[in-house]
Structures are given as structure tokens and as C-alpha cells.
């Protein structure tokens, strides 16, 4: 039998615990979004498009660990760098998604070349989702997040944010995917 490293074992435990069964017995997954997929952001409409799959807003949260959330590249894209312990605790939203939406998000986030989908621990700020035991504010839950280990050498030294807003006063213009060259 092949031995699993302690880090891989923790990752397997963390990632396997974010799947839940909905009342209709469809396997659902929790996903934490921190960038353009949040409510009010340029790609939020993709979370609502039934052709992509099902998603349900569950609540708001922030990462337990600090991560660098940077805006980088000529298209003003937000990236959460997979460098735990640096940056800030990142604010975002938790969604329950079906397998079809999860596959869409993997494709949309260019997994595994641009982003990777990994488990992350989150502190619940507010929970509005139904259909399962609601965690109380301040409690810890888990979800998948799209972060990156593939980035330019100067990205860790860029200005870090604790929250992303495409329309904020950070001086970066987000370019929609359809408008990129």
C-alpha cells in the first residue's frame, strides 16, 4: 500500500469534508469565492446561469489563515496566492454548487494551469443558506477555493487586499474574458 504524506492526508480529509447531500440527494460542494464571482462583481452572473449548473449563496466568510490577495496582469485579475501566512485574511462568499457548476468553475478558472481548487478553512461571518445545519458566526467551516501557485516572481510583493471589488479605488481595471486579446 502506498504511503500518503501527512500534508496529503490533511488535504484529503479537508477536501472530502466539503461535500454535502442536498434534500434531493444530489451531491453538492461548498466553494468560497473572493473575486469576480462574488455578488455585485463582473462574473457573478455566471453563478446564476442555470446552463452552468446550480449554485446557492450560503453566506459570507473569511479565511482562517492569511493569504496574499493581489490584482495582477494587464487584465486586472484578482489572484489569491497559495502562500499561507502572508497577506491578509481574505473575505468572500460561500456557495453550495452541484457537480455541473463545479466543472464549469474548474473550466472557468482554468484548472490546473491558472488556478488550483484546494480546500480552505473559513470563519463564518454570516450564514443565510438553508437545507443543512447552519454554522454560527465565528465558527469554522471548510470549502474549496481557487488559488494559484503559478504566478510571476514579483506578485508576492504586490499590494495585498483583504477583499476584492472590481469597481474599488485600487486603480486596476478588470477586463472581461470576452474582451481580452
TrEMBL record:
It catalyses: epsilon-(gamma-L-glutamyl)-L-lysine = 5-oxo-L-proline + L-lysine. May contribute to degradation of proteins cross-linked by transglutaminases by degrading the cross-link between a lysine and a glutamic acid residue. Catalyzes the formation of 5-oxo-L-proline from L-gamma-glutamyl-L-epsilon-lysine. The active site is at 109 (proton acceptor). One of its GO terms (cellular component) is cytosol. InterPro entries: AIG2-like_dom (IPR009288), GGACT (IPR039126), GGCT-like (IPR013024), GGCT-like_sf (IPR036568). Residues 31-146 form the Gamma-glutamylcyclotransferase AIG2-like domain. Keywords: Lyase. It is an enzyme of class 4 (lyase). This is Gamma-glutamylaminecyclotransferase. One of its GO terms (molecular function) is gamma-glutamylaminecyclotransferase activity. Its EC number is 4.3.2.8. GO terms for biological process: modified amino acid catabolic process. Belongs to the gamma-glutamylcyclotransferase family. The lineage of its organism: Eukaryota, Metazoa, Chordata, Craniata, Vertebrata.
Amino acid at each position: 500500500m502506498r504511503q500518503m504524506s501527512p500534508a496529503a492526508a490533511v488535504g484529503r480529509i479537508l477536501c472530502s469534508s466539503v461535500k454535502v447531500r442536498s434534500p434531493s440527494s444530489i451531491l453538492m460542494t461548498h466553494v468560497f469565492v473572493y473575486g469576480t464571482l462574488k455578488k455585485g462583481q463582473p462574473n457573478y452572473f455566471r453563478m446564476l446561469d442555470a446552463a452552468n449548473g446550480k449554485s446557492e449563496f450560503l453566506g459570507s466568510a473569511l479565511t482562517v489563515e492569511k493569504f496574499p490577495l493581489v490584482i495582477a496582469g494587464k487584465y486586472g485579475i484578482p489572484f489569491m496566492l497559495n502562500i499561507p501566512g502572508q497577506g491578509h485574511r481574505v473575505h468572500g462568499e460561500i456557495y453550495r454548487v452541484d457537480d455541473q457548476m463545479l466543472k464549469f468553475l474548474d473550466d472557468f478558472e482554468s484548472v490546473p494551469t491558472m488556478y488550483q481548487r484546494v480546500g480552505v478553512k473559513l470563519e463564518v461571518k454570516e450564514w443565510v443558506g438553508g437545507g443543512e445545519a447552519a454554522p454560527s458566526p465565528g465558527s469554522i467551516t471548510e470549502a474549496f477555493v481557487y488559488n494559484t501557485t503559478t504566478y510571476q516572481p514579483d506578485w508576492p510583493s504586490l499590494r495585498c487586499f483583504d477583499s476584492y471589488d472590481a469597481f474599488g479605488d485600487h486603480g486596476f481595471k478588470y477586463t472581461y474574458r470576452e474582451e481580452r486579446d
